[in-house]
Design goal:
270 residues, alpha/beta, Rossmann fold, 7-stranded mixed β-sheet, 9 helices, 17 strands, globular
Length: 270
């Protein structure tokens, strides 16, 4: 079992957990994820590693309360233990000096974007980060992003903080003023779809992380299969990052609702 050593809230439904996992902390790279299980009969939850601390031997996970399993995980407190923690899994983000990189994150997708922003900056890139949320209260990790970004643009749907508008508007404003060599986007599937459509129009290579569709995390369940460039891929073993211009986002969005009925039944049984 792995003990929770720190817990904080970004919002009532978004929790930051720091968990003891020295071996994972030592070997993880940007883009890697872990599988977490709460209780012997608990569901396997794939979560991208947001950060790690080698001195403390810990990893940081950011969890949004969505269904039964994520709510159970968020209800744990400092001193409690998660039953199982396995990782790092998946393929690490390809990091090199591309030049100017725009990193676009929406909602809790900002958390897995943080280690990528950090790695890209350390590799010598000019990093411009665009953070998007519905309201000011839902903007997370802004301070940490500023530490490794040359510029941070905040977009809110209601205009309560930063600029009013969608993440695509922030991304497009950068593309229109300077040459962008790469875009990395993580967030809700619909957000990544429109970011990909925008960057394709401007011929900007784009990488999207499809971690939200993962279930089992080992390629055995097949729930995370997506079509990329006309071929079937499994997000947990072939990704979670893919060429965003090749991803069939409409198919992915439909598949995200595959277990909606089962989730409702599970909620009623709690």
């Amino acid at each position: 079992m792995s003990k929770i050593v720190d817990k904080s809230y970004f919002s009532p439904n978004v929790v930051r957990l720091e968990i003891e996992a020295p071996l994972i902390a030592k070997s993880r790279k940007a883009g890697h994820f872990v599988i977490v299980k709460v209780g012997e009969k608990g569901e396997r939850i794939p979560l991208t590693i947001a950060d790690s601390n080698l001195e403390k031997g810990t990893i940081t996970l950011v969890v949004q309360k969505m269904g039964v399993s994520s709510t159970k995980l968020c209800s744990l407190n400092v001193g409690d233990e998660v039953t199982d923690l396995v990782g790092p899994l998946g393929k690490a983000t390809h990091i090199e000096n591309f030049g100017t990189v725009v990193c676009a994150g929406g909602g809790v997708g900002v958390a897995p974007l943080l280690p990528i922003v950090t790695a890209l900056k350390k590799a010598g890139n000019r990093v411009i980060t665009v953070l998007a949320a519905r309201t000011k209260e839902l903007v997370i990790l802004e301070e940490q992003m500023r530490a490794f970004s040359d510029e941070v643009i905040v977009m809110t749907d209601d205009g309560s903080y930063g600029r009013k508008g969608l993440v695509t508007e922030g991304v497009e404003s950068v593309i229109q003023r300077e040459k962008v060599d790469l875009c990395v986007t993580i967030g809700p599937a619909i957000m990544m779809k429109f970011v990909a459509q925008l960057t394709k129009k401007y011929d900007v290579p784009t990488v999207a992380s499809l971690n939200t569709i993962m279930v089992d995390g080992t390629g055995m369940c097949g729930a995370c299969r997506v079509t990329v460039g006309g071929q079937t891929k499994f997000v947990c073993v072939d990704g979670p990052e893919f060429d965003a211009h090749q991803v069939d986002f409409d198919e992915m969005i439909k598949r995200l609702g595959a277990y909606r009925d089962e989730e409702q039944v599970a909620k009623k049984q709690e």
